[in-house]
Amino acid sequence: MRYFFLVLSLAVVCCFTSCNKNQQSTHNIKADELFQLHDSILAHTEEYSDSVVIRYAKGLKVDYQSDGIHVYICNPDPSLGKANTEEFVITKPSKRFICTTALQLGNFEVLGLEDRIVGMNSLKNLFSPKMKQQMADGTTVKIGKEGNFDLETVIAAKPDYIFVSASKHGGFEALKEIGVPLITHHGYKEINPLGQAEWIKLIGLLTGETKRANAVFADIERKYLTLKEEIQADTLHTPTVISGRQIRDGWYIVGGKSYMAQLFKDAGADYIMKDNEDSGGTTLDFEAVYARGIKADFWQIDGSYNGDFTLESLAKEDERYTSMDAYKNQKVLFCNFAQTPYRELAGVQPHYVLADFAKAFHPDVLPNYEPKFYKLIK
Known about the structure:
The chain is built from 15 helices and 18 strands. The protein is of the alpha/beta class. It folds into two domains: 43-219, Nitrogenase molybdenum iron protein domain (Rossmann fold, 3-Layer(aba) Sandwich), CATH 3.40.50.1980; 235-376, Rossmann fold, CATH 3.40.50.1980. The strands form five sheets. A five-stranded parallel beta sheet has the order 6-5-4-9-10, sandwiched between helices. Strands 14-11-16-17-18 form a five-stranded mixed beta sheet. Strands 1-2-3 form a three-stranded antiparallel beta sheet, covered by helices on one side. The chain is globular and about 60 Å long.
């Protein structure tokens, strides 16, 4: 009998230990493995809450009240101080929306809800296969450009809401006159990359797809934080990075308090211009940035370019670039807006932007990852 209880006890201990190990393994999946998973998060939406809680976004607030879901929106740009707040109440799901920027489209795209978009402005570069098909078959119509919207087309599309951008003002007053509620989408102004992505929860609220939005955001959050933690835990060095390049009258950089600066930090890099107080982009004297960035380990740039953008292409813009260490060591990261859906998806997929930088700054962390937006050029 003693032998029986001894064996039983050992079995229980082994089972408990095994269960603990299995449970731990689900919470300690390496970043490289996470980014290789192909199981669709949309297949698991029923496992998530139907209520929205905002944790990262500073320009978005949700309050559940007896008369509906109260949504408060403001511009989260810290340089503005106290910003004006818009409020509207959601009482039922909506199915018809008009978007006026690529990022707004991306909010629907990551949720698989492109079919809710009945109108788009004329985008120079459109990448979403579903949206291309919808525009081709007429289920989504072109409403024109800022300052020249086709109001008859807008009215005929019968939108429930129209998303507008605070950075673009042309023609929005005319849209107000047709009586369709306008929602200012401030997601691109969020400094925290996860805060920018969290605006997809607003789309979930408006469409009645809150479980879907919570599921997709949880997946983004998990991958982002897992990779960030692994970079901080496993890297032994901190490379330096400079951003931007000469555009017309000065060197355009991302501000030291910007979304991109935060991504550099989370990717385990030291941003040369981190002492800059701007939360967006800014232009500085060429020589001032050049003197500080000439020894930087990496160099991040972007833009639209037809064909392959190479180091030779960069040198043709300004011969002085060739003396920079990042140029000489082939450590220039470039995102081509003409060939990648950066404007549509980067704001709602910050885990991929982080992974792009991590792949360059700390390649051992993501040995099997293929960059999506930013790639080293030769």
